[in-house]
Design a protein that fits this description.
By secondary structure, this protein is of the alpha/beta class. The chain has 27 helices and 39 strands. β14, α9 and β15 form a beta-alpha-beta unit.
C-alpha cells in the first residue's frame, strides 16, 4: 500500500500550477488513501463526461475500479490528480503497454493515457496541465509515447491532445479516434507550454489588480493601523467595485463609510480580493475563511514571516501551502499593497501615503515597502503617473516574474520598472525579461550586490559588472539606484527610443553644455559640440534651435540645458510651450531637459496634467482583452506623428549627468532591441546524446545526498562531455619514469609532461609543464628535472599528453550562480583572466550570436583575430565548443559546474586539454520541466 508517507511515494511529482483562468490547483500522485475522494469526484462528473471516458454508460465506480485507480506502482501504472481544497477536480493515468496493447513493463516504452475532468472545471486548462505533468513523469520512467482512444464527439479532449505540440499520429479505428503522441519535447511543444504559462500567470495577476470586489480584513474601528489605512485609500481612490470592511468586533453597518461585517462569510456576495491586516497568528483562520468563501486572491500585509527568522520562514511556507490549497494567489506576506490606475478600476489597496500616483504609463514592482514608498514619492514629485504598482514584500507566491507576464501584454504599461533583491528563478526571469524587453523597456534596480551576514537575500558569486552584463544580454536596463530607476523610467515612458548614440546639446549656458558633453563621452555616446544660445536666449530661440537639432539627420537625441536667464520665472511656461512645439513638429527623437534652479520649468513640463496613453496621441485605445500568443504585443517606438504640443511629454533632470545617463541607457536599449530582432539560433547537433547523458547523470547521482556536489573523475567527466561532442585530449598517468615512457609510446611523440597537483596545475610559469618532448631520453630527463624541482611523483601526480597544434590558450567555464542562474564564461588563460579579470559572460542557453559576441567582448580578443600580424585562430570552432557546453548545461541542470582549461585554439581546430565537471541533484525549481509554481 502506498501513501504520501511511504518512502516509495514520488513526492517530487507534486506541483502547484496556475490554470487558464488565473486560479491555482495542486497536482499530485494518487495514493491508496484517495478512495473516498475519487468516489466523491466521480459522483460530481456528468453522465456525458463519464460516457466519453469509458465509451459506455458508467454511472458509478465499482470497488474493483476504485482499487485499480488508487493503487499504482508509479512506474508502469501512474495516476495523478488535480486538487483544490484537497478535493479532486481532474485525474489522469497511464498504463504501460506492449506492441499489442497489453499491460507491460520496461523496456516497453508506450503507455495508454486517459483523463477525466469535473464538468464545473472544464475549460480552465486542467487537462492541459495534467498532460504536461503526466508526460514528464512518463519520460522519467522511460516511456516515449502515449496512445489514447477518444470518441469523435469528445472534441474538447481531442483538442487537448492535438494542441499540445508533440509530434503525433492520428487515425480512425473501430468508431474512435486513435492518437499516438511522441513525448520527446519539441520547439512547438515548448512554445505551446510557455504561451499557456504566460496567459495563465498574466490572468492570475489581472485578477489581483482588477477585482470586482475587495474586502479589507482587520480594519480597526478606531481608524488606526494598516488595515484602516488601506480601507481609506480604497475608499478615497474611487474604486469602481464593491468594497467591504471586516472586523469581528464591528457593531455598526458602516465602518469609516464602508459596509462592515463581522466575518467574510457574512458577506452575501462574491469577494474577489481580500486584503489581510491581522496579526500573523490569526492569518491562517482568515485564509481558511477566504478560501471557503471563494476569494480569488489575497494581499497579506501582516508581518512576522520569512523576514523574522526560521520560525517565520516555516510560518510563511505553511501560509503558501494553505493559500494554494484553495486555488488562490498571494501577494506578500509583509506586503505594502497594490495599485491599479485603470479608469475602470481605480484600485489603491496599498499603504501609499497621499497623494496617490496619477494614471500613467509606468508599471512598478518592488520587493521592499520602503523602496516602494521612495519610488512612489519620486514619481509623484516629478508629476509622473503609474499604470500599476505591486509591492510584494516577502514575495512568497506572486513575484516579479508573474508581473512581467502581466505587463508583457498590458496595453496600459509602456515601461516596466522593478526593484529586485533576487531574481528568484533566474532562467525564467531571463526568458521573460528578454521577451518583454523586445516590446517595452524593462528597467531593474537590483539590490543585494553586497549581502551582509545573516541577510535573508542570497548573494552572488559574480562581480557586479558581470551581473549587469548578463542582465543586458536579456535586454534588461540595469541601474544602480532607485533615483536612476525613476530617471530612466521617465525618459522611456514619454520619449521614443533613440536610433543611435549621436547626441545634440543646446542651451543657454556654455558651462552646463560642457558638463553634458563630458558626461556623454563618459557614457560612450557621440555628442556634437554644445550649441550655446547665451543667457539672453528667448523661448523662441530655444524652439528654433531644438527644432533644427531634431530635424538634422546627424542627431539621434537632444539634450536641452537651461539656467535662469533674463526671462526668469515668469516665462518658464512659455519656454515649456516652446520646447513642446519643437518636439511636436519634429517627433521621433528623444529630448531630455536639464534645468538648474528652474523648478518652474520642471513643473511646466511635468506630465502630471498631460493626458497619457493612446488617447493622448490621437489614436483609439487598445481593446481590454489580452492578445493571443499569435499576436504578440508590438514594440512601442514613439508616439504617432500627429501628437500636438499639448501631448508632448518631456522629462526634466536637475543635473546634466542624470539626464545623460538616462539617454545613454535608452541608446543601449535601442541597440539591444535592434540586435535582438535577430536573436540567433541554438544549433541542433546530430551527434549529441541527450538521453545517454541523462542516464549517466542519474547513475552517478544515485548514491549522492541531495545537498552534496560530486566532482567527476576524469573518465566519467570525459564520457559525459563526449556525449555532447566535446572531446578532451587523452591523458595517461605517469607515476614513474617507465610509466611515462610507456604512455608516450602509446600516444606517440612529441608529448607533454605535466603535473596535476593543485598548486601547480595549469601553471607553466612555475615549471610544472614540459612541452615538445620528442624522444624518450628527453622525456626521462624532463621527468627527473620536474621531480627534483617540485617534489615526489606522489606529490606531483604527473601525466603525459600528446602535443597539439600551437595556438591561443583560453578558458571556457560554466557555473550555476545563485543570483544569475546558469552562466557561460570565456577568457584567455593565465594572467589576462586571473590577474586582470578579463572574462566575459553570457546566460545559458546561449544562441550563436551570443557566443560570437562573447568571444569578442573581452579586452584581449584581438589576440584571437590576428593581432600584430599573427595568424587568426579558428573562432568558429571555439563558438561551436561554447554552444555545445551551453546545450549540456541547459539540457541537464544536474551539471552545476564545468571548467575546460586550457582550450588551445589553433588556426584550424582546437584542443581541450583538461576538464573538470561537478554535478548535483537539480534544484526543485527549474525552467525546463512542466509548468509549476515555486515550491515551499
Amino acid at each position: 500500500m502506498t501513501t504520501e508517507s511511504d518512502p516509495s511515494y514520488p513526492a517530487h511529482w507534486e506541483a502547484d500550477v496556475v490554470l487558464r483562468d488565473g486560479g491555482t490547483a495542486r497536482i499530485r500522485p494518487i495514493t491508496t488513501e484517495d478512495a473516498d475522494r475519487l468516489v466523491s469526484f466521480y459522483e460530481q462528473v456528468s453522465d456525458e463526461s463519464k460516457y466519453y471516458r469509458f465509451f459506455a454508460p458508467y454511472p458509478r465506480l465499482s470497488a474493483r475500479d476504485v482499487h485499480r485507480f488508487t493503487h499504482h506502482d508509479y512506474v508502469d501504472r501512474v495516476g495523478l490528480a488535480a486538487t483544490i481544497g484537497g478535493e479532486f477536480i481532474g485525474t489522469v493515468r497511464y498504463d504501460r503497454i506492449d506492441a499489442n496493447g497489453r499491460p507491460a513493463s520496461a523496456p516497453a516504452d508506450e503507455a495508454e493515457v486517459a483523463f477525466l475532468v469535473q464538468d464545473a472545471h472544464q475549460g480552465r486548462g486542467v487537462a492541459s496541465a495534467l498532460l504536461e505533468h503526466i508526460g514528464a513523469v512518463a519520460r522519467e520512467r522511460g516511456i516515449r509515447r502515449f496512445a489514447a482512444e477518444v470518441l469523435p464527439a469528445n472534441t474538447k479532449m481531442i483538442k487537448v491532445f492535438t494542441d499540445v505540440g508533440y509530434q503525433q499520429k492520428r487515425s480512425f479505428e473501430d468508431g474512435s479516434v486513435h492518437l499516438t503522441l511522441d513525448l520527446e519535447p519539441t520547439a512547438e511543444s515548448l512554445a505551446v507550454q510557455r504561451a499557456r504559462e504566460q496567459r495563465a500567470e498574466a490572468r492570475s495577476v489581472q485578477r489581483l489588480l482588477a477585482p470586482g470586489s475587495v474586502a479589507v480584513i482587520g480594519a480597526s474601528r478606531s481608524g488606526g493601523g494598516v488595515g484602516a489605512a488601506v480601507l481609506r485609500n480604497l475608499r478615497d481612490s474611487g474604486f469602481h467595485g464593491h468594497l467591504y470592511a471586516v472586523n469581528e468586533a464591528v457593531s455598526a453597518d458602516l465602518l469609516d463609510g464602508v459596509r462592515a461585517y463581522r466575518a467574510v462569510a457574512d458577506i452575501a456576495a462574491p469577494v474577489d480580493l481580500a486584503v489581510i491586516a491581522v496579526p500573523a497568528d490569526r492569518v491562517p483562520e482568515v485564509v481558511a475563511a477566504c478560501g471557503e468563501h471563494g476569494v480569488q486572491g489575497l494581499v497579506v500585509l501582516s508581518a512576522g514571516y520569512g523576514e523574522s527568522g526560521p520560525q517565520g520562514t516555516a510560518r510563511q511556507r505553511e501560509l503558501v501551502r494553505q493559500v494554494r490549497s484553495y486555488g488562490m494567489r498571494l501577494i506578500g506576506p509583509n506586503a505594502f499593497g497594490v495599485i491599479n490606475t485603470a479608469p475602470d478600476v481605480e484600485l489603491n489597496a496599498s499603504l501609499a501615503p497621499a497623494p496617490a500616483p496619477a494614471r500613467g504609463r509606468i508599471g512598478l514592482f518592488t520587493q521592499s515597502g520602503a523602496i516602494g514608498i521612495a519610488l512612489l514619492s519620486a514619481l509623484v514629485r516629478r508629476g509622473e503617473g503609474l499604470s500599476s504598482f505591486v509591492s510584494a514584500g516577502n514575495r512568497a507566491d506572486v513575484s516579479g516574474n508573474d508581473i512581467l507576464q502581466y505587463w508583457y501584454e498590458d496595453q496600459a504599461t509602456d515601461v516596466a520598472l522593478l526593484y529586485l533583491e533576487t531574481l528568484g528563478n533566474p532562467r525564467k526571469f531571463s526568458r521573460l525579461a528578454r521577451r518583454t524587453a523586445a516590446v517595452k523597456p524593462v528597467v531593474v534596480a537590483k539590490g543585494g550586490r553586497h549581502t551582509p551576514a545573516g541577510h535573508v537575500v542570497p548573494g552572488t558569486r559574480l562581480p557586479d559588472d558581470t551581473v549587469s552584463a548578463l542582465l543586458r544580454q536579456a535586454g534588461v536596463i540595469r541601474v544602480d539606484t532607485v533615483t536612476e530607476l525613476v530617471d530612466v523610467g521617465l525618459l522611456l515612458a514619454g520619449q521614443p527610443v533613440p536610433a543611435g548614440p549621436r547626441v545634440a546639446i543646446i542651451g543657454n549656458s556654455e558651462s552646463l553644455g560642457v558638463l553634458a558633453y563630458d558626461a556623454c563621452l563618459t557614457e560612450r555616446l557621440r555628442p556634437s559640440p554644445p550649441l550655446d544660445l547665451t543667457t539672453d536666449a528667448s523661448p523662441e530661440d530655444f524652439r528654433a534651435a531644438l527644432g533644427a537639432a531634431l530635424a538634422a539627420d546627424t542627431n539621434d537625441a537632444v539634450i536641452v540645458t537651461a539656467i535662469p536667464g533674463v526671462s526668469g520665472h515668469a516665462l518658464a511656461a512659455d519656454l515649456a510651450d516652446a520646447l513642446r512645439e519643437a518636439v511636436a513638429a519634429h517627433p521621433g527623437k528623444p529630448v531630455a531637459v536639464v534645468h538648474v534652479e528652474l523648478g518652474a520649468l520642471a513643473d511646466a513640463l511635468s506630465p502630471g496634467s498631460i493626458p497619457v496613453g493612446p488617447a493622448a496621441w490621437g489614436v483609439a485605445p487598445a481593446p481590454a482583452t489580452a492578445p493571443t500568443p499569435a499576436a504578440a504585443p508590438t514594440p512601442r517606438e514613439r508616439p504617432p506623428t500627429d501628437a500636438g504640443p499639448a501631448q508632448c511629454r518631456i522629462p526634466t533632470y536637475p543635473a546634466a549627468e542624470r539626464a545623460v545617463r538616462a539617454v545613454a541607457e535608452a541608446v543601449r536599449y535601442g541597440q539591444w532591441r535592434r540586435a535582438n530582432a535577430d536573436p540567433g539560433q541554438v544549433p541542433e547537433y546530430e551527434d549529441i546524446d541527450e538521453s545517454g547523458a541523462a542516464a549517466q547523470l542519474a547513475r552517478l547521482l544515485s548514491g549522492v545526498a541531495d545537498a552534496d556536489v560530486l566532482t567527476l573523475d576524469d573518465a566519467d567527466a570525459h564520457t559525459l562531455l563526449g556525449r555532447y561532442g566535446i572531446r578532451v585530449l587523452r591523458t595517461l598517468p605517469a607515476p614513474t619514469p617507465d610509466a611515462a615512457a610507456e604512455a608516450a609510446r602509446a600516444l606517440g611523440y612529441p608529448v607533454a609532461l605535466k603535473t596535476t597537483a593543485p598548486h601547480l596545475r595549469h601553471r607553466a610559469d612555475l615549471g610544472g609543464v614540459r612541452l615538445d618532448l620528442t624522444t624518450e631520453d628527453e622525456l626521462r630527463r624532463a621527468y627527473d628535472e620536474l621531480t627534483e624541482a617540485h617534489g615526489t611523483p606522489a606529490e606531483l601526480l604527473p601525466v603525459v599528453q600528446a602535443m597539439v597544434p600551437r595556438g591561443v590558450d583560453t578558458v571556457v567555464r560554466s557555473v550555476i550562480d545563485p543570483a544569475a542562474g546558469a552562466v557561460l564564461t570565456f577568457g584567455l588563460a593565465g594572467v589576462a583572466s586571473e590577474l586582470l579579470g578579463d572574462t566575459a559572460h553570457r546566460l545559458v542557453p546561449a544562441a550563436d550570436r551570443d557566443v560570437a559576441a562573447l568571444i569578442r567582448s573581452i579586452r584581449t580578443a584581438p589576440l584571437l583575430f590576428g593581432w600584430r600580424g599573427s595568424d587568426p585562430v579558428d573562432t568558429p570552432a571555439l563558438e561551436e565548443l561554447l554552444l555545445r557546453l551551453s546545450r549540456l548545461v541547459d539540457d541537464h541542470p544536474e551539471v552545476v559546474g564545468v571548467s575546460l582549461e586550457p582550450v588551445v585554439v589553433a588556426t584550424e581546430g582546437l584542443s581541450v586539454l583538461s576538464a573538470t565537471v561537478r554535478v548535483a541533484h537539480p534544484p526543485a525549481r527549474t525552467d525546463l520541466g512542466p509548468r509549476t509554481l515555486p515550491s515551499y
